[in-house]
Amino acid sequence: MVQVAYYSITGQTQRFIEKTGIDAYEITDADPFHEMGAPFILVIPTYDDDMMDPVIDFLGYQSNHRELVGVAGGGNRNFNDLYIHNAKDIAQGLHVPIVFDFEFNGTMADVKKFKKVVQELELKTTEH
Ligand SMILES: Cc1cc2nc3c(=O)[nH]c(=O)nc-3n(C[C@H](O)[C@H](O)[C@H](O)COP(=O)(O)O)c2cc1C
């Protein structure tokens, strides 16, 4: 089973996850030290790098960095070249793909597409 872990600051990413109906794990500022223990997709919004410290702590905890299979970035296209830059940096740093991107809390089409991406990754990870 591919799991989903997400981080949200103003609630847009949380809203996106809620719309998918996926039972995802929320990374919190209070305690980002939680081990997923199985392959997962990380869904994060985009801010200045230091705002992602809890996500970096989470990824550095136990086996999390090894179980990460892909990153989905939420952002705002008005940021042009900086669109989903945190997701891109993390994906590149941990050698996993960007599996999805969306603005704010995503459209219904985004929700549908993301669920398909999760299903496809599920098939891929259970093949091995
Ligand atoms: C201060 C600030 C900086 C942001 N910087 C970026 C950015 O560099 N690139 C981007 O794609 N989106 C950027 N955004 C947009 C947010 O990532 C986007 O609104 C996201 O949906 C917020 O998710 P959250 O409510 O789950 O925290 C920024 C938003 C704020 C308020």
TrEMBL record:
<protein>
    <submittedName>
        <fullName>Class Ib ribonucleoside-diphosphate reductase assembly flavoprotein NrdI</fullName>
    </submittedName>
</protein>
<dbReference type="InterPro" id="IPR029039">
    <property type="entry name" value="Flavoprotein-like_sf"/>
</dbReference>
<dbReference type="InterPro" id="IPR004465">
    <property type="entry name" value="RNR_NrdI"/>
</dbReference>
<dbReference type="Pfam" id="PF07972">
    <property type="entry name" value="Flavodoxin_NdrI"/>
</dbReference>
